[in-house]
Fold these 2 entries.
Entry 1:
Amino acid sequence: MNEPRKLFVKSFGCQMNVYDSRRMADTLAPQGYVETSAPDDADLVILNTCHIREKAAEKVYSELGRVRRLKEAAAAEGRRVVIAVAGCVAQAEGKEIIRRAPAVDLVFGPQSYHRLPQLLARAERDGKAVDTEFPLDDKFDHLAAPSGATIRMRGVSAFVTVQEGCDKFCTFCVVPYTRGSEVSRPVQKIVAEVERLADAGVREVTLIGQNVNAYHGEGLNGRPQSLAQLLEEVSAIDGIDRLRYTTSHPRDMSDDLIAAHRDLRKLMPQLHLPVQSGSDRILAAMNRRHTRADYLDVVEKLRAARTDLALTSDFIVGFPGESEEDFAATLDLVSEIGFSGAFSFKYSARPGTPGAEMSDQVDEDVKSERLARLQAEIDLQQQSFNNRCLGRSFEVLFEKPGRHAGQLVGRSPYLQPVQVTAPASLLGEVAAVTITEIASNSLFGTLAQTPARELAVLGAGA
Ligand code: SF4
């Protein structure tokens, strides 16, 4: 019998890439590849790249320098290592990657990973292979399903891609160019995937997509279904206790999706809803297609639908043309809403996007100073939210053993890590926990007597 070949996949960026990396491993498993966490042990190294952060391509080239040295060391021992670059940087850079990093054997975009076995064969035959097409066939139809053992090894919380690509064309974002236009998977296929996950012990599923609430996949009746309808279908699957979805666009928060937050008990009371700026002038320059008032209106409806809903968001500081007045509008929006956390970044130009061509770029020093002010406010809001959890009881899904003996770590409904002294038999289970201590952004608690389903809700406003 042949020795298994070892695969090392390094994921950069978002949950979508983590999901894609896992599906790549699933696709290669029937070819005899097993995953390793040690890159110097691997026969195939895949860098699954992300184009969102600043200098993304440069970071990939410097990582490739390290991987090239591993390849050279293996070659000195008579062992062949194949290097592949996948994901959004691969899509954007294409052949340029092989020109600048000749040790790379294969470059492929996010829409091609279901063809990995064929692409590897092509790279072996021709020396190099590049595939950055947007093929018409549905890659999800060609992906091998992970085994029950693999699902169990990955834990009780899983991501499932339901939608890819984006048609919004925000002027700072590369996603519409690297991932293409919006495509939604059919309901039936998503339900089948979640059922397989549930059978293998998964208890929490996060439906993911670049613009997930624009979901419009074909339903069982042959007609397009909304994300709310999809959530209802998935919610009916036995064994799944918790549902989440990310990342959403404010404009696609339809009334039926807002109502799902009221009606679906399994849908967790936490929503990531990027706003990016509090200034209408900047929102227009970003081509966000919503105003500050639109965002506030959606938040009001969501909070009316579910009083314990906690909101997180994304902010870009120093978008071209942002004045002190525009930035003050962002700070004001943050105070008005009260978030339980947020990601915030300085604007940095992405080649090929309209924002990169704008003439009124903001000075780096000004961006840094504004970002520090925004992050200080968000940190205060996060602390305030966490402090309000003290003494409350809520359901925790236990995911893994803690650092200390007898301790388990789980997630609250609001995604906070919670450490609890609890028997190992609770791993993979949902149990009621009373929060007894807050340290930094970690919560500590004890098992509660309250029936898990009847816990007090947490007011979400700041
Ligand atoms: S909605 Fe999101 S993914 Fe789409 S272009 Fe805007 S920022 Fe990018």
Note: The longest strand covers residues 430-439.
Entry 2:
Amino acid sequence: MDERERILIVDDEMSIRRLLRQKLSRQDHPCEEAGSAKQALDKMKANPAALIILDIKMPGKSGIELLPEIKANYAGTAVIMATAITETGIAVQCMKQGADDYVCKPFNLDEVVLSVDKALAKRRLELQIKEYQEHLQEKVEQQTKEIRRLFLGAIEALVFALEAKDNYTAGHSRRVTKIALAIGKELSLPKDDIEDLRWGSLLHDVGKIAVDQSIQNKPGELTPDEYAHIMIHSQIGAGIVKPVVNDRVVEMIEHHHDRYDGTGLNQTVAGEDIPLGARILAVADAFDAMTSDRPYRPAMDVEEALQEIRRCTGTQFDPVVASAFLKISASLTVVERSQATVSTGTASKTSKTKRVR
Ligand SMILES: [Fe+2]
């Protein structure tokens, strides 16, 4: 006998409780008794029963009043109403409110046992279905997560492959991610926002797959049309990742070239209406681009790049984000700063952050 399938007999008459208890115990049903609604609630609170046989008429709180309370707090407990033969109409009402069955006084004890067995079997089945559904839900969630992880991994690999093709951009997304996460931590962003920032940074340039490489790597100034062509990568990148990331990551990628003052190409938002992740990415992206050699200019040294970030604070960059970046810039690792160090003294005065491609 499953110990969890205890039966609570609730009746103000002790003789009736004993009668039912004797009969049900002989059928291997462990039983407990309660002489009032209050006692029943106390016993349920201490150890919920699998089934309650509930007397409709009791002094104080009646079985009819207790039923909704039991159903609301112990959904997994089956309830059989016990009623006088003259009150079966009330018992039927109780079934409409969630009771599983009713038995009439004076009891036919075999019928009571049958009703109990039926109600317990129904309960077992309901529990099994519930468990199956929960398990299924969990499995679907796990598989969805796994598919998402694999897909994001594939896009990430695509970004790294794109960058690896080109000496100028190799490792750019990884370095931007490190810088963006350091800014996010400095701004005390919550864990979920940091995770979004990680994906936004790693994937921010995936749209460059649609950019003409001869324009991307063109030495010298771009024509306005060429610049506009390169800038489509923000929109295209957002579209690529949309099926597998949340809206915050999509918006981060879409707006990562937005200027804080709203004067960027085809820009629709400005200031704090630009998603915070995109404002962080803008600084991290610009710093890494400035301190990397590009076909159109040599790398700036770190101090010059920092000065450029300061100069463009409030116009290109969000002052709060830029200030957080400047605070942590001294702690950037050798990897983030190596290219700039190698190029010290060769930075061109014509290099501007607006030329970040
Ligand atoms: Fe970009």
Note: The pocket of fe (ii) ion is lined by residues 204-205, 233, 256-257, 285 (CB under 6 Å).
